[in-house]
Write a structure and sequence with these properties.
Blueprint lengths: L5 E6 L3 E7 L2 H6 L7 E4 L2 H10 L3 E6 L1 H11 L4 E4 L6 H12 L3 E2 L11 E7 L5 E6 L13 H6 E7 L6 H16 L3 E5 L3 H16 L5 E5 H8 L4 H8 L5 E5 L5 E5 L2 E5 L13 H14 L4 H15 L11 H9 L1
Parallel strand pairs: 1-5, 1-9, 2-7, 3-8, 5-6, 9-10, 10-11, 11-12
Antiparallel strand pairs: 2-4, 7-8, 12-13, 13-14
Length: 332
Amino acid sequence: MSEATYDVVAIGNAIVDILSQSDDEFIVEQGMTKGSMALMFSPADADALYAKMGPGREVSGGSAANTVAGMAAMGAKCGFIGQVADDQLGEVFAHDIRAAGVDFGTAARAGDPSTARCLIFVTPDGQRTMNTFLGASQFLPASALDLDLIAAGAILYLEGYLWDPEEPRAAMRKAIEVARAHGRKVAFTLSDIFCISRHGGDFRQLIADGLIDILFANENELLALCEHEDFESAVAHIHGKVPVLVVTRSEKGAIALVGTERVSVPAEPIAKVVDTTGAGDLFAAGFLFGQARGLGTEASLKLGAICAAEIIQHYGARPECDLKALVEAKLG
């Protein structure tokens, strides 16, 4: 087995987020479920909802892309595979992720549909309600995978959001095969209860087949995956089925189970939650960075908490401060 030259290679939706402040009344009026993600299946639906948004700002996003952008900001070497269209938003996404220091070489797709966009409504309590038009991102074929890049990554990181469309689902299964053939680890984030409701059976089978080395979930996602109502019983259900389980619990902090070891850390204290978009993505960035640098479970969790705290204090899911300096100051 050759030595890995990348810390993490991620495959995910290549999305540009459009964020706007909103209120609970608007969320209800539009039939949204606050704090969740819903798919929009046509450009017309996306355009109609966009027309109802207040003033917004565009920030490149996508769950796995946010994670590797955060890791790169701390000094990790990362790559990303995701499909954009040959349009303005595609150029924005490609520029932003490369500028973040992440290797990105997936060729843009000609013609319709357009690059994916996520319309995010942020309420005064900082909760984000997402409405995603997957656009070109759902047409990532296995033929677009950079197999050498995947083989070179110590960890292959996959997002549950991208499991929904058939073509990228097949691409991710191919990527898992490549990573496994080269002795690499596979990390998977459940992403959202929406994804579990549609593909929970697939996710459980991946775990049962021993294909997931590191599983990321928040508390509600873990309950949905395990079909339990009690947190501790859900933890007991999944314990031992994956080598590493990481569960975020919002203001209650996070836990990780690694073999027989169980570690918990509190949430980082902050002045105010502004926008929770990307909190889980940046938590994963911190944890994976710690693992890539050979840090212990507790230190990796602490890094995750630090990164998540930074991201929820401003709009958008990409770091705005010097993340490397921040974690060095916090950890000493």
